[in-house]
Design goal:
The chain is mainly α. The protein is 83% helix and 0% strand. Helix 1 packs parallel to helix 3, helix 2 runs antiparallel to helix 3 and helix 2 crosses helix 5. The radius of gyration is 13 Å and the shape is globular. The protein starts with a helix and ends with a helix.
Length: 102
């Protein structure tokens, strides 16, 4: 039960804002929907690992949520290391973001 609550909190404070920011940035540079979908799937797939980390390091949730809120942490920094799927999706997204200056 506690893990479910923590997973919801991590989703609300970290994953959802990261997913929204990445989707918005990719939409601005007119990235294909397939790339946006991969990033969305990556964010959803990362939730279990991020929830596990939050269980082990509660202060990490607070500091990471704050860093996201003030814009100090890029979504790629959080999601990129969670799953191999994320590394692939973010690599594809980075091509569009860097080529179009976003």
């Amino acid at each position: 039960m506690l893990q479910d609550i923590l997973a919801s909190l991590v989703s609300f404070l970290i994953v959802d804002p990261l997913q929204a920011e990445m989707s918005e940035r990719l939409a601005q540079v007119r990235a294909p929907q397939a790339v946006i979908g991969q990033v969305r799937a990556c964010a959803e797939a990362s939730l279990p690992q991020l929830a596990d980390r939050a269980m082990a390091e509660p202060a990490w949730v607070v500091s990471t949520a704050f860093d996201i809120w003030i814009g100090r942490t890029a979504p790629e920094d959080i999601l990129g290391s969670t799953t191999p799927q994320c590394a692939t999706a973010l690599k594809a997204a980075r091509v569009y973001l860097e080529s179009r200056g976003a």
